[in-house]
Amino acid sequence: MARLPARSSGRNMTLIDPSREFEDIYDRMGQLVNVALGDLGTAWLAELPWSPSAEVSETESAYVVAVELPGVHKDQISVELQDREVIITGEATDQVKGRRHRSSRRTGRFEYRAMLPGDVKPEGVIAQLADGVLAVTVPKSEAARPREIEVIDN
To answer: How far is C-alpha 24 from the geometric centre of its chain's CA atoms?
Structure first.
């Protein structure tokens, strides 16, 4: 089992979480921009969409794009296919009604784009949302499907 590297900070040792490190850097950069430019510096930053975690895989007959969207409902999601590019957009809204103590969930507009490696059949695309994961299945065209080649003797 792989172990995360440890960082020494004064009296105790802490484990490094790479995704948390990037979030901390992002937050610190936002603070620096805010100090340097005031509210004008971060106004444009709030308008930028974030990109959810995702993976693109391939079966014999289709490409599958799986995007993690916890707490997002199907009416908050738009899925498009332009040539070989899958574009998933939407907005994750804040669901908390009471006082929040801590959160690492992202809210606001999101966008995910994936260029598929081969030709596709746009008429057979299926998008299913289950357990916070959107699975977009894009069938391959006949030309993109693997073919078995018969080996012959001379």
So the answer is: 19
pLDDT at position 7 is 54
Judge contact between 107 and 93, C-beta under 8 A. yes
Q: What's the rounded Cα separation, in Å, for the pair 112 and 92? A: 13
List the chain domain ranges.
15-48, 49-95+107-144
The residue among 141, 25, 17, 133 whose CA lies nearest residue 74 is 133
Give the pLDDT confidence of 10-63 residue by residue, as tens digits: 555 555 566 677 777 877 887 787 777 765 555 555 567 889 999 999 999 999
Q: Are 24 and 97 in contact (CB under 8 A)?
A: no
Reading the block at residue 39, the tokens are 């509210």
Q: If one looks up domain 49-95+107-144 in CATH, what number appears? A: 2.60.40.790
**Residues facing 9 on adjacent strands:** 12
Mean pLDDT, the chain, integer: 83
